[in-house]
Amino acid sequence: MWSYEKKLQYPVKIARPNPALAKVIITQLGGPDGELGAANRYLSQRFASPYPVVKGTLTDIGTEELGHSEMISAIVYQLTRNLTPQQIKDAGFDAYFVDHTTGIYPQDASGNPFNAATFQSTGDAIADLTEDLAAEQKARVTYDNILRLADDPDVRDAIKFLREREIVHFQRFGEAEREVSSKYPGSGKLTPAPFRTRKNKNNRCIKLSRI
Q: In this structure, which of 132, 166, 193, 202 has its CB flanked by the most CB atoms within 10 Å?
């Protein structure tokens, strides 16, 4: 159960529309390393996590990622409001407009819709945390790329905040991974299976790889 506070985690106040930039930024809503995927990844992984510290971290960060999805949606909305037909055409926003008008639809920068196949949930703390660490770094890289393309200070301000949160999340997942590894040293490790053997035509045993 969540309590919803009717304000963004960080203010988004964009004065100038820019549909071309919106086409790029929307990838952080529905793209492979976007906020919607992150929220679903962490809030799915938490159910099967065997360790309280990991479950708590996943719940905290997954909840925050929902707020970041809201921020990205607000950015895209403000960049595309009150557009003229000519602005839509000039910015190459017409393909999106035909399908969604200026509604907020989760997709990547290439137009591919959000796909849950971009994340995994295994129930193994080390496997999931390793994926989560990588996910935060990939999201950080995407924000870096957006900042290379965006020159609007109103947009850059919000994107810089989101980028910094990816770094904080990476640090928190690292702390959780280290705690699991130190407190539960067998986590993520399977007992090695015995070697299989078979006999060749000369009746000699041949050692095979572990299974």
A: 132
pLDDT range class, residue 140, cuts 50, 70, 90: very high
Does position 152 have pLDDT exceeding 90, yes or no? yes
Q: What CATH number is associated with residue 156?
A: 1.20.1260.10
Query: 36 Cβ partners below 8 Å, 6+ apart?
Result: 29, 30, 65, 69, 106, 114
Residue 196 placed within a domain: yes
Cβ neighbours of 24 (radius 10 Å): 19
The pLDDT tens digits for 153-178 are 999 999 999 999 999 999 999 999 99
Q: Is residue 85 one of the residues assigned to a domain?
A: yes
Amino acid sitting at position 93: F
CB–CB of 111/36 below 8 Å? Answer: no
- b/e map 68-85, b = 16+ CB within 10 Å: bbbbbbbbbebbbeebee
Tokens (6 digits) for 175: 């702390």
Calculate the dihedral angle through the C-alpha atoms of 195, 198, 199, 205, rounding to the nearest 10 degrees.
0
- 87-123 per-position pLDDT tens digit: 999 999 999 999 999 999 999 999 999 999 999 999 9
Encoding tokens for residue 176?
């959780």
Please name the amino acid found at residue 71: M
Q: Per the domain annotation, does 79 fall within a domain?
A: yes
